[in-house]
Amino acid sequence: METIVIDRGRYARHLVLPEVGAEGQRRIRAARVLCVGAGGLGSPVALYLAAAGIGSLGLVDCDRVELSNLQRQILHGTPDVGRPKTDSAAARIKELNPDVEVNPHPVRLTRENALDLISGYDVVVDGTDNFPTRYLANDACALLGKPLVYGSISRFEGQASLFAPHLGGPCYRCLFPEPPAPGTTPGCAEGGVLGVLPGVIGTIQATETLKLLLGRGRSLLGRLLVYDALEMSFRELKLRRDPQCPLCGGSPSITKLIDYHEFCGVPAEPPLKTMNPDEVTVQDLKHALDNPALGIQVIDVREEDEHRAASIPGAKLLPLSQLAARYGEVERDRMCYLHCQAGVRSMRALQFLRQQGFSKLKSVKGGYLAWAAEIG
Fold this sequence. Notes:
Elements: H1 12-15, H2 21-30, E1 32-36, H3 42-52, E2 56-60, H4 85-96, E3 101-105, H5 114-119, E4 123-126, H6 131-144, E5 148-154, E6 157-163, H7 172-175, H8 188-191, H9 197-214, E7 223-228, E8 233-238, H10 260-264, E9 279-280, H11 282-289, E10 297-300, H12 304-309, E11 316-317, H13 323-326, E12 336-339, H14 345-355, E13 361-364, H15 367-374
Parallel strand pairs: 1-2, 1-4, 2-3, 4-5, 9-13, 10-11, 10-12, 12-13
Antiparallel strand pairs: 5-6, 6-7, 7-8
């Protein structure tokens, strides 16, 4: 470690801290950190770790930058819209600190690649936004003996912790043995998120990562930190390792990676760059609306307040929460285009109607948000 050369000008404010100093900065410079996700949480994590001088920073993300990302994903800028997130993130990090080795992994984390990807890093930071990937990252880290710095956000609330069974603490499964029922926990696109919230939680994750590498301070191991932005309050819950945990308990039943989409009860994501045959684009919807001879019906499955705030012309409001009681209002002999805010609830509505015998169904990809961005 003494052979690592550090830039004393760049890291001067670290060097004067007795808890960091030259030895600590060399530890940071020698570290390899993998950030799973280059979005809301991954943005502050990657920026602050890069600024701190992490030697090697891996970024796993298969998405492209969308306009709606920019409200919170500060790694990316307006000119990056449409660009792979790992590309724009790597460019921004190199601009911030050219000494950092950036390893873009423009792939989706899967059970086929997770162990190989994670094994090359010292610490993994969870910047995911869905339950299958969250459980996958947890299980892979536990099986490999890697610490997982956890964070999650929703609307105005965020959480952070450190999961590391090999250090005597719990894993994510100790806290959440079972995933929530599909559709009960909306993502950012459906439920919304305060733009600054991932900045708070992501910065905490970056702090935990640096403390872990330095071996300083009291970590969040065995603690769940919960932040409420509206109340501007933090509260702490004690976490204990579950001796019956199927992953890190005394008699584990999970000894290899499993099918996480099946475990979470959600359909596997389609291959990249393909269109789900049950979906149409907002351009397709616009074309159909401009051609009355096609005779389509457009059903908005959002809630009344969402529809009242903004809607697609000609769309009939039929909230998903009322669909089971009112699906008779949908005409079976006409092509039905279903839309919601971002395309999640409309797919659930499509699946429900198909179970009732409807066949002429399409879900509008991206929902009203895509309509507003592309059609106006």
